[in-house]
Specification:
By secondary structure, this protein is α+β, with helices and mostly antiparallel strands. It has a domain of 107 residues: Ribosomal protein L22/L17 (Ribosomal Protein L22, Chain A, Alpha-Beta Complex), CATH 3.90.470.10. Strands 1-3-2 form a 3-stranded antiparallel β-sheet. Helix 2 packs antiparallel against helix 3. The longest helix has 20 residues. It is flat. 16% of the residues are buried.
């Protein structure tokens, strides 16, 4: 079973709220509330209230032990943006954007993993097959491609050797 909680028109940036939501996704409710309680972010307080509300909804629905539930889905959607004007010099105006967010939390019962019985040892059936040897023709082709290197580029006909540098005689500056 699932328990959900939604907060709409929360006065926080969705981009900043998603950073906090990513930290608690997939965790147990008790762990998530502890993380959010001590996080130094303004959005953590609002998201903590949503998670606590989802936990209370789970208790009211009698879904199960609410502390053992995990946060199955948590997502932050963008809401409307309130725009305000800010007067600037020379008669100009800048816009102040005040974004809103919609936060949704879905809790799900933690799936308890059953321990699987160890399979019976079957040494003969699962014996490792010997590595297949490549054919003789393939070995030669590999040797040719990996071992062959290109020869160094030859200098052009009229050019001097690479070690010799062209020197020019400088004229002394006169008055």
């Amino acid at each position: 079973m699932e328990a959900t909680a939604v907060v709409r028109f929360a006065r926080m940036s969705p981009q900043k709220a998603r950073l906090v939501a990513d930290l608690v996704r997939g965790r147990k409710v008790a762990d998530a509330l502890n993380i959010l309680r001590f996080m130094n972010k303004a959005t953590a307080r609002i998201i903590g209230k949503v998670v606590a509300s989802a936990k209370a909804n789970a208790e009211n629905k009698n879904v199960g032990n609410s502390d053992e539930m995990t946060i199955d889905r948590i997502f932050v959607d963008q809401g409307p943006v309130m725009k305000r004007r800010l007067a600037r010099s020379r008669g100009r105006v800048d816009m102040i954007r005040k974004p809103f967010s919609h936060v949704t939390v879905v809790l799900k019962e933690a799936v308890r993993e059953k321990k699987k019985a160890a399979p019976a040892k079957k040494g003969e059936a699962k014996a490792e097959a010997p590595a297949a040897e490549p054919k003789a023709g393939e070995k030669e082709a590999k040797a040719k491609t990996t071992g062959a290197k290109k020869a160094a580029a030859k200098p052009k006909a009229g050019a001097k050797g690479g070690a010799e540098a062209k020197t020019t005689k400088k004229k002394p500056k006169g008055k």
